[in-house]
Structures are given as structure tokens and as C-alpha cells.
Amino acid sequence: MTRRIISIGVCGLGLLFLLFATSTFDVSAQKAGKNARGSKLFMQYCASCHGVDGKGGGTVAPSLKGTMPDLTMIPKENGKFPGLRVLHIISGDKEVISHGSKEMPVWGQVFREKKGESSAKLDIYALQEYIESIQQK
Asked: CA 137 to CA 134: how far, in whole Å?
């Protein structure tokens, strides 16, 4: 009985260590501009319109109404990247005229339908972080 309790305790500590190490790695990787999740999502869902470089020259852009904005030059609000506004645009909480109605591929809705609410929030946040990382100084 005592061995079993010790084994469970050791396994629990191991899992806690693994979770801590993984979360620390993910945060430091994102801070270093290596947001692999956001980059992959951007290439999969956004690049066809906004371009691989985010400057608006995607392969589909010429067939769309209006011009695609340069996502590398998002105007700063009060000297800061408007992260919350970008999150709302990606999730579909804020209407964007060039997207037409909120039904334009609002990726937040697509992510929620495919993966559920929690994973959708992570994807939206990863995209917002990626877009912030490609801002030109």
C-alpha cells in the first residue's frame, strides 16, 4: 500500500514537472518569435488572401472585392499593438468591412466547429500572436 502511494506521488510529480517544462518552453518559444502554431494556422487559413508574408498579396486577393490590408503594418493604438482588437476580428466578434458580413471566413467560428471552444481560443490567440510577431518596426 505504501509503495503504491509513493508510486502515485512520484508519477504525479513527474507529470507536474512535464507540464511545467512544456508550458515554459512554449512561452519562451513564442517570445522568441517561433510561434509554430500561429505560423501554421496563418499559412493554412490566412495566407491565401493576406499573402504568405502578410502584406496582402495572396493568390486569392485579386479575385476579392477591395484590397487586402498589409497585416505587417497594423496601426498601433496608444503606442501598442492592438492585440484585443485583432483577437476580436479573427474570432468574428468585430465586423470588418472588407470581410463583408461577419460570415466571411470568420476563423473563430470555423475553429469552434472543428475543434471546440477551448482549442478555438488557443488557435485565435496563436494567430493574434503570430500577426503581432510579423509587425514591421
From this structure: 9
Determine the Cα–Cα distance for residues 54 and 47; give it in Å rounded to an integer.
Answer: 7
* CA–CA–CA angle 51, 56, 61 (5° rounding): 80
**Mean pLDDT on 35-53:** 94
Question: Phi/psi of residue 75, each to 5°?
Answer: -60, 135
The mean pLDDT of the chain is: 76
64-101 burial, b for 16+ CB within 10 Å, e for fewer? eeeebeebbebeeeeeebbeeebbbbbbbeeeeeebee
pLDDT in tens, 87-137: 988 888 776 655 555 545 567 777 888 888 888 889 999 999 999 999 997
How far is Cα 34 from Cα 26, in angstroms, rounded to an integer?
9
Q: Cell numbers 517561433 correspond to what residue?
A: 34
CA dihedral (66, 72, 75, 80) positive or negative: positive
Res 19 pLDDT > 60: no
Angle at 27 between CA 58 and CA 50, to 5 degrees: 10
